[in-house]
Here is the input.
Amino acid sequence: MRKIRDEILVLKESPLYAERVKNKVFPVIGEGSHDAKIMFIGEAPGKNEAATGRPFCGAAGKILDQLLTSVGIDRKDVYVTNIVKDRPPFNRDPLPDEMQIYGPFLDRQIDIIQPQVIAALGRFSMDYIMRKFGLAAELAPISQIHGQAFESKASYGPVMVIPLYHPAVAIYNQASKDTLTQDFQILKKYK
Ligand code: URA
Here is the structure.
């Protein structure tokens, strides 16, 4: 993991590198247990995350923390990261070339953690993870497949991929928060 961090720190090929240096902010590598059974993968750091170098530590992170608490999972027992490790300007959606450049680092993190469950937060993460694990044929809009568990095989053994709405959708939308709370119930089986 340290090697991954060191490589990302000097990743000048990334279109987001110059912005990181200019703004004097940090890449967000990931945080949590390296023995985690469950790995949460978001999209990209926001303002708070880039300022601190920690994933999901702003408003969306507060929702994630509440969701974890609702199913009795301690955040320190899971691993939380993103596909894209540097903040896209103005929190815009990550671009394909950004996901392409940071994707291999995420792949290595998955091989290190070897999670039984990957919770993909939001459509970009869902798309990347489902394609990576040979589930492209099962891809559908996240509104149709959120909360479902898809079985696949990782290099290290079986893995369950669970697409979930991104916690940010629940910041100002109680209905989405209720849906996310319901969907999180499935994670109880794996804690
Ligand atoms: N949104 C994300 O996708 N990731 C974070 O780390 C924070 C907000």
Summary: The mean pLDDT is 97. The chain has one domain: 2-190. The pocket of uracil is lined by residues 28, 42-46, 49, 55-56, 60, 82, 168 (CB under 6 Å). Residues 96-113 form the longest helix (18 residues).
